[in-house]
Amino acid sequence: MNIPSINPNFETFLSNLQQIENRMSTAEQQLSSGLRVSVASDDPDEISSILQLRAQIAGVQQTQENLSTVTPQVESGENAIQQAIQVLDTATSLATEASGSTSSASQMADEVPQVQGLLQQLVSLSQTAVSGQYIFSGDMSGQPQYTLAVGGNSVQQMFQAGAPPQVADSNGVMISIGLTAQQIFDDQVGGGPGTGNPAPDNVFAAVSGLLTALQAGNSASVQTALSNIQAASAHLNDESSFYGAAQNNLSAANNMASQTLIQLQQQLSNEQDADAAQSSLDLTQATTDEQAAMSAQAMLKPQSLFDYLG
Amino acid sequence: MSSVSSLNSTLLGASSALDAFQYALSVTQNNIDNASTPDYATQTVDLQAAHFNPTVGDGGGVSDGPLLDSRDLLAESDVWQQAGLQGDASAQLSALTDVQNAVPVGTGAGIPAALNTFFSDVSAWSAAPTSGSAQQQVIADASALAQSFQTTAAAVAGASISVTQNIGDTVDQINQLTTQIAAVNGEIQDGGAGDEGLQATLYSSLETLSGLVNINVLQHPGGSVDVTLSSGAALVMGSRQYALTAGNAPPPPGSTDPQAPPDIDIQAADGSVVNGQITSGSLAGLLQVRNVTIPGLIGDASQPGALNTLASTLANAVNSIVTTGFVSQGPPPVQAPSGLFTFNAGSASSAASTLAVDPNMTASQLPAIDAAGVANGVPLDIGDLANSTQAALGSVGFTTFYGNTAAQVGSQLNTAQTIRLPPRRPWPRRKACVRPCRACRSTPKPPMSCNSRRATRRLPKWSAPSRR
Fold this sequence. Notes:
The structure holds two protein chains of two kinds. Chain A has helices spanning about 10-35, 45-100, 105-125, 180-185, 205-215, 220-270, 275-300; strands at about 130, 135, 145-150, 155, 165-170, 175, 190, 195-200. By secondary structure, chain A is mainly alpha-helical. Chain A has a domain at about 75-265: CATH 1.20.1330.10. In chain A, strands 1-2 form a two-stranded antiparallel ribbon. In chain A, strands 3-4 form a two-stranded antiparallel sheet. In chain A, strand 3 (about 145-150) and strand 4 form a beta hairpin. In chain B, strand 6 and strand 7 form a beta hairpin. In chain B, the strands form six sheets. In chain B, strands 5-6-7-8 form a four-stranded antiparallel β-sheet, covered by helices on one side. Chain B folds into two domains: about 15-70 and about 430-455, no CATH class; about 75-305 and about 395-420, no CATH class. The two termini of chain B are about 30 Å apart. The model of chain B is unreliable at about 425-468 (pLDDT under 50). By secondary structure, chain B is α+β, with helices and mostly antiparallel strands. Chain B is built from eleven helices and 14 strands. At the A-B interface, helix 1, helix 2 and strand 5 of A face helix 1, helix 2, helix 3, helix 5 and helix 9 of B.
């Protein structure tokens, strides 16, 4: 280790100058980047917190995107159920008309195509898709869970759907965002999944029952089907309330995510960002110090040979 | 006759005094000539009054006494200690800057950013669990995450190679200096005692050596020195030099990771490992970074290293979710063909450098359905990992663990930076010795003067002044 000067005062001067230049460099770096912390050594105690905040911000932003992604699915689900309710209202009218004492078998038969159309509509509604995803198909959203059976008088289940997706809010709490077509249109009682019997409020079964009754010209059966259709309509209203609640939950989650994001960004800014005013002041102060130091050093009497005599 | 004798005595006294002053001037001239000579210590002549007793023919006057130099071994030792601390800190500062750059914490940089992107896109996949593009994005992000681990591990390994090279260079420098010191010792022992030129060369080498490694110096009466490490390992004994060597340390007994990067051992000439004796100087700083800091990141035979622990914990956590997931519930149910990540589980210190997406896993085979049948249960569970704590990481999350690791490097670098800045008055100096005052002149051996060490490495221009 060599000492780069024969003058100890000059050593001290250079050392102090180096420190001043370090301060200037730090201030300039903070002003140009806007960041107080760019590398770990800038503030080791805050690094983990800063990285964690960035991760949380990324997570909340993604949560907002996810909420935006699923909101149309929930709205479409709600709309589909409302349309299904309207379909059942039409079916109720037809059933009421057919169940009247003056309705003949031929009149009932005339209504068969209309009811077939209603069943077709219900199947179509069970196949509602958003961005290519069948929203009522549970874990198999790539394909519809129900299709119209050959002949158009009944409905065929293509697969047993698993639980539909959920979405997490910014706190990680899961929000249910959908139901399966089976839950909505094919309610069953008894047995395991896919092995039970149609419940009285089963939408598909109610309309299919009406269709069968009309084809048979059996007013008593039409009356039973009418009762089932009314029960199915009530069931759809219940399911519609699920989607209403889901929409409310999504809206609340969105609001919470927005507030959380603001808080996190503020926190990150406090820990990571440079105080521009302070950095500017530091730069000015360091520049002044440097000029003062240089001026003072220049005014010192230089060493001469006389300093070595003695 | 007596007056003639008195006149002669007076003239002889004056002549003697002039000779003494001439000698003193020569010494001063030599001091000036060597003003820039490294480690040259100023010399002074101890002028002595001659006997004055005219009755017996002693005419008085002044004569030159012994030549004194201002070197003070205690002060030199203080300088060596400071040089050692500064060398240690400077070496650490340089090496740790490379290591710090290898573990970035900036926005959008390195493993933290790759983790955020991965978890964000897994979250996006949870909102569209059967979306092929979402699955493809997750596979791409997983690959990028694995690549960021590989890149980071490679960057730290690169810093390790650089530090290892520096250790070799430093050991070479130490050996060159000890060779020079041994040679100077030989010259001193061969009649060069008292030659300030040789002393300047000797102490210049010692000072440089002290910046490289902590030394103990034993000075012999003739001026030659023995140099050892702190606990006695010899570097120079008289005119004989004992070389240090640097090499890979053998794996410790019971090591289960033969692929682990070895530490570096410094061996004395007798083959003993002297790492523990090297406590300051550049070599100590480099060894600290090479054998402690870097293994703390990428492992050695006795530890996996933080990056590898992070990589293996992340891969295992993700894989444990993915392998229990289902691509389809069928019937028949279709399970995931493999985990998402793979790494060399046979070498704990290779996890980060070998982390990759399992080649058996494709986007279409990425399972979204969890064991409970939830359509997006797997991406939701993987997404939860972002905020989870892991026992293997000391009960902190992935990002926090990485942050703590980077913070350790940054904190160590800050410490080195603080030490490296020289104190306000680095060396014990006394202005009075440059321009000696009466008190200083009267001191038999004044303390080391401030012009006793110089910036440029030049040999002394002039050796001890000749005596008439």
